[in-house]
Design brief:
This is Peptidase M43 pregnancy-associated plasma-A domain-containing protein. The chain is an alpha+beta fold and 179 residues long. 21% of the residues lie in helices and 6% in strands. The protein contains four helices and three strands, in the order αααβββα. It has a three-stranded mixed β-sheet. Bound molecules: zinc ion. The site of zinc ion has 3 residues, from helix 4.
């Protein structure tokens, strides 16, 4: 379990579109309040990032924390690139530490939470963004879906005929690890 394997997962996930990540450095900070209570929009998150964030807009800052309380079901969250200019210190992703590759969260310990949040960090939306309608997730070759799903719901088709973006079954395989 470690950050170097998380970077490997990013490079696997973002290999097809040609994004490359190299581990720059890892710092470790002991702060139980930031670690346990650093959910989105919290003062703990703000303090953590203000103290720890490094680099400019091309440097991905990954904070691995333990969401608890209100945020105990959260796997991670991210900023989008369009917010960098107005809030550079906020830039980065925050992920549940147990999702790092080899971590103890069964079925979620391959680093894909980090890949998912990094997708947002480079500007990608969920495939259910905008439901079934244009412009959807703003990516022309991903099939839209009306709502989020969990697991691998083969044959699920939430964008039925009649919607603007109609047709095929919901996406379950459009992910580089599965190719
Ligand atoms: Zn997301």
């Amino acid at each position: 379990m470690g950050m170097s394997h998380q970077i490997d997962a990013l490079n696997l996930g973002f290999g097809p579109p040609g994004l490359r990540f190299a581990l720059r450095n890892v710092t470790r900070t002991v702060n139980a309040d930031w670690f346990n209570n650093g959910g989105p929009g919290t003062p703990q998150q703000d303090a953590m990032k203000a103290s720890l964030r490094q680099g400019g807009p091309s440097v991905l800052n990954i904070y691995s924390v333990n969401f608890s309380g209100t945020w105990s079901s959260l796997l991670g969250y991210s900023t989008f690139p369009q917010t960098y200019t107005s809030a550079p210190t906020d830039d980065g992703i925050v992920i549940l530490f147990t999702t790092l590759p080899g971590g103890p969260l069964a079925s979620y310990n391959q680093g894909k939470t980090g890949v998912h949040e990094t997708g947002h960090w480079v500007g990608l939306y969920h495939t259910f963004q905008g439901s079934c309608f244009e412009p959807g997730d703003y990516v022309a070759d991903t099939q839209p879906e009306a709502t989020p799903s969990e697991g691998c719901m083969e044959g699920r088709a939430t964008c039925v005929v009649g919607d603007v973006l109609e047709g095929e079954v919901d996406p379950i395989r459009e992910f580089a690890f599965n190719f």
